[in-house]
Amino acid sequence: MSSPDQVDQWQTLDRDLNRFSRLELATMYAARPLVGVGFSLVFVTLSALAAAVLTGAETGNLAVIVAAVFGAYMALNIGANDVANNMGPAVGARALSLAGAIAIAAICESAGALLAGGDVVSTISKGIIAPERLASGQIFIWAMMAALLSAAIWVNIATWVGAPVSTTHSVVGGVMGAGIAAAGFSAVNWPTMGAIAASWVISPLLGGVIAAAMLAFIKWKVIYVEDKIAAARTWVPVLIGVMAAAFGVYLSIKGLKRVVSIDFGTALLIGLAAGVVFTFLSRPFIRRQAEGLENRNRSLKVLFRLPLVISAALLSFAHGANDVANAVGPLAAVVEATRTSAVAAQVSIPLWVMVIGALGISFGLMFYGPKLIGMVGDQITRLNPMRAYCVALSAATTVIAASWLGLPVSSTHIAVGGVFGVGFFREWHTARRMRRNEGLSPDALRLPREERKRRKLVRRSHFLTIVAAWVITVPAAAVLSGICFFVLSAVGS
């Protein structure tokens, strides 16, 4: 037996070890942000070295190096902010762990950027400014660098406050601000800017309406029926087929431009074929998964988990193929302008520039993405695999519908709008069921203010913060870009 003194010694040792363990955990928690900053600085430095080595002694080499730093910084911020919209719903629905989501997104984003990233990109963001209005190639270089830096700073600020914003709109605002600073308001294509402003409303509304409609369909055909499992065996393969069709069209027209050029009619046929094939292939899989499941809502979540994970991965691939140009398009323009001493409306993106964009997005997601993933997936409204599946499906179908109608939309606004749509639909549907089941009139359901706030399924504070960030993204990036342009031109002259 141990003596009292030995017992006291062991207890003292345990207390000391617990203190050291808590101190170690606190140190790790405090140092975690510094690890991300350290890796980011290493990545930015390596990007600058790559630019210096690969452009050699070309004229304007210093401008390319500085632009590479700005492009790497922008890519990190795209990964920290934009990618969360694809993975947030899957994580919030507990279909994926945070680590699993980051791994899948990093792989798919990089694959999309490198395999299907735009071979030719409009360096001035779809005609926002007229290149011929800029006085010289040097002015053009400063404008592109200012656009990159301002967009990156704005997205960084938005990530810090926890607001998912459109990196496309940030770049558009940056290019517009630099164009105004360099050549005046007449340099801006205002009709194009009007269409982009309209997308601030169109994107989230379309995404929200489609996501709400999909959730209403699932409730009608699967959840609120007597035999839920039998209904799921019938309708989940159909929903998987719809997902396959949507992504077949989406990837054909938006994600595979570099590999092959496909017109919209052919893309629809590809999507239809993919939908039919995957509907029939998924039937035996869903039938096996449904065996032994209880006739309850919790069982349905199992059947939607794998399709949700696949849809999130496909969204990440398509996002990498499209949005990497936001980081590297202006950088590619600077490289081309320094090489030819001329202003080009469109340029080919060198492979090393695309690699900077792909790796930057992946590193930004790994080190800074969890904050926005948590915001989109868990803090706006409660998500389960069925609701998150509706959000993912709405993102693909909304882009297709917008492409067909010729409307400029933001993938960020669509995805977050889908989350809002699901949450607001649930609020409306819950109130409607209460009135119907209890036979109460709307007046009878009026509750005290605090109780009404408690029962809201969408957090209004996040809703207002995000909407405010969307509205000011273009003007804020434009103002920052104008300031950056004047600073860069003053330093460079």
- Beta-strand content bin: under 5%
Terminus-to-terminus distance: 84 Å
Mean pLDDT: 79
The H/E string reads HHHHEHHHHHHEHHHHH
Structural class: mainly alpha
**Cross-sheet strand order for the largest sheet:** 1-2
Please state the CA-atom Rg, rounded to the nearest Å: 25 Å
Set out the fold topology.
Layout: H1 4-55, H2 61-81, H3 84-92, H4 98-116, E1 120-122, H5 137-161, H6 167-183, H7 190-223, H8 228-255, H9 264-290, H10 297-340, E2 346-348, H11 351-379, H12 385-405, H13 411-438, H14 449-454, H15 460-492
Antiparallel strand pairs: 1-2
Helix pairs in contact: 1-2, 1-11, 2-5, 2-10, 2-11, 3-4, 3-10, 3-11, 3-12, 4-10, 4-11, 5-6, 5-10, 5-15, 6-15, 7-8, 7-12, 7-13, 8-9, 8-10, 8-12, 10-11, 10-12, 12-13
Describe this structure in words.
This protein has about 500 residues and is mostly helical. The protein is about 80% helix and about 0% strand. It contains 15 helices and two strands. The chain has helices spanning about 5-55, 60-80, 85-90, 100-115, 135-160, 165-185, 190-225, 230-255, 265-290, 295-340, 350-380, 385-405, 410-440, 450-455, 460-490; strands spanning about 120, 345-350. A two-stranded antiparallel sheet has the order 1-2. It is elongated.
Summarize the structure.
This protein has 15 helices and two strands.
Essential attributes:
15 helices, 493 residues, 80% helix
